Amino acid sequence: MQVTLKILRYNPEKDAQPHYERYSLDAEPTDRILDVLEKIKAYQDGTLTFRRSCAHGICGSCAMRINGRNRLACKTLLQTLDTSKEITIEPILGLPKVKDLVVDMTVFFENYRKVMPYFINDEPLPEDGRERLQSPEERERFDDTTKCILCGACTTACPTFWGDNQYLGPSAIVNAHRFIFDSRDRGAAERLKILAGNNGVFRCRTAFNCTEACPREIKITKAIAEVKRAILTGRLD
Amino acid sequence: MSIKTHQFEVVIVGGGGAGLMAALYASKGASTAVISKLYPSRSHTGAAQGGISAAIGNLEEDHPEWHTYDTVKGSDYLGDQDAIEFMCYKAPELIYELEHMGLPFDRTKEGRILQRPFGGHTNNKTGKPVRRACHAADRTGHMILQTLYQQCIKNNVNFFDEFQVLDLIMVNGKAAGVVAIELATGDIHVFHAKAVIITTGGWGRMWEITSNAYAYTGDGAAMVLRKGLPLQDMEFFQFHPTGIYKLGILITEGVRGEGGVLINDKGERFMEKYAPTVKDLASRDVVSRAMYIEMKEGRGINGQRYLYLDVRPETVNKYAKIDGRTNPDGTPYQVTGEEILHKLPDIIDFCKTYLGIDPIKEPMPVQPTAHYAMGGIPTNVKTEVLSDEKGTVVPGLYAAGETACVSVHGANRLGTNSLLDLVVFGKEAGIHAAEYARGAEFAPLPDDAADFARAQLDSIRNSKGNERVADIAAEMKQVMMDKVGVFRVEEGMQEALDKIRELKERFKHIHIDDTGKVFNTDLLTAWEVSNLLDLAEITTASALARKESRGAHSRDDYPKRDDQNWLKHTLAWARGDGDIELRYKPVVITKYEPKERVY
Description:
The complex is a heterodimer. Chain A is α+β, with helices and mostly antiparallel strands. Chain A is 30% helix and 14% strand. Chain B is of the alpha/beta class. The longest helix of chain B has 25 residues, at 521-545. Chain B is globular.
């Protein structure tokens, strides 16, 4: 079948402003948007620039706006879109444009680092040198937020983040949640203090954009609500 | 063009599991930087699914000695037994170390790390599958990558993200740094170092059907090869039995560990013919070959080039009963759809997304997919890179993970041993490189340190021919898949070698569209294809020379393993203009004399 992609192009070495370009080509209904972009780059226009790596939704490189929604290009099949119309492809919002679909992820990763996204427990290890114990129920408590691949689809779908990228954003909160609710971790109090601050969870307006955007189907709004509750109640249940 | 210079005692090329583990340890004793062409969290370690093995015996009796023997046998006796023993005995402490770093392993009801069976891992007394693979659902690699990245952040490791390393700087035969291009600006950077660790992963993108990421183009191995150093055992490349039909996306062996079975067009569970004891949990080379034979003899599904992987609860329960499979408490093994969903959530998601099917209700169409490089940059157990068959060390140069060949995988890797390899030897690399750096001086950098890297890029940028890089890449992938895949013969491999050389010639006449500086992926993709071509040539030449069948190298014209003549490692040098020099070195055998391999 024939498809047409309308892609927002921007080359800082040539263009004053971003502009759209259209590409038409033959494709299969089962092709991913990433496959289509690869074909365009290979045979029509090698200057088209985007990030990609694993091509099956696990590395988080290819988050972009597809018909106005944040998706991974490698997890979006043509047959799930209306291909009788042009498909609009744009970079994710709220981060500086570098070139075409590539944005500068610096602020995104800075926000991630601010929530202490690492395991903290300075207590002595088990004397036998083996694992710390954790029940399957305790492990299940934070399972959902361990799935995050740091693609940025959630944070760059968030209206609060669009307005001010100093807001930590859903992805950073998800990664804080992963540790706050891990029964083995001891850094919750410090993280909750950061998340209670001016750029923390209370700037979330519960727009649900993040949850809709997440390619890993993490219940992000729920995770944010749990963090808010932990701050307000001082309890981690 | 200005060149930016940095100085670190240890520079690590690649930010996957091996690189990050090396960084954690190197940074304890030396100034350290990780240079990665991706954000480290995007690395391909994150795609590993089913587990990481260690004989911690949380569910049943197990011993590092059994793990060692299984790995030796899995390697078809080509793995070096000292290295394998080292890895398997280190495994338990590394698993606990990862847990202490916060890795969220699944748990037993006692709160210990949960383990599942995997191909080729057995109870050495009964020969039956043993639960040895520690896992976090079916995203174990993701959790290892995330945990190591998090710990690197905690320990203030220096990162240079989205910098493509192009060349290794050698001064008087010692590693002295690397040259890289910063993607965002196109600027060239020189990283002056006392020690360099290469952890750049594999090169599955050489084949048409692969589970590997686009990034898996063998950059580090190709870079080393161009420095006049050899690559080891390149003819051994693993085809994982279960890739999604046509797409190659990995479906973890953990599916079979949880009781899934392979089924042919006649509805037969055909693996019982090929591996009567462990059946669907035989080594990957054995299973992939069996699948090819089934398809060749017309038992592919609807006569096509795929088979079914069936993990529907009714199928799992039927065969679990036939096999007499039990839970650790001795009760019969039975599963529900709910339990399968919980253990294999990503697999279910992949199938729904890419195939539109629910594996709990329908079988999955699968075919073997190019998956893992057993060969690579030769190293010793200390991860020091070796320059010849005598074991001469290249001072200051280290390699670990998939890009290295220690060799712990020999002719065929067991599932879950790749994650183990990268944490065990990543750690060794970090420790030894930092130790070396403490006793070494920075070698004075030559003025022309960046010239070769720039010349490579300029020759691509300024090439004014008519060839499209994508055509060259597609033809390479096709010929490697058809002629240097699961089954091989002399004529086919010669044809492939001729084709690769033709493609290398045509590569001199490419043209690319993007001549800019900022984020020029057109340029770097072309450079990556040149790496794949160099490695394809070495792979094929090494394979042509090996006149036997062993592990993943399976020849119709030499169907038997030949220990008399071929119980040895291949070392291959590229001497320029298609001149490939092959030499050999003996396999290290300590306890286990080669014998016939039966599963």
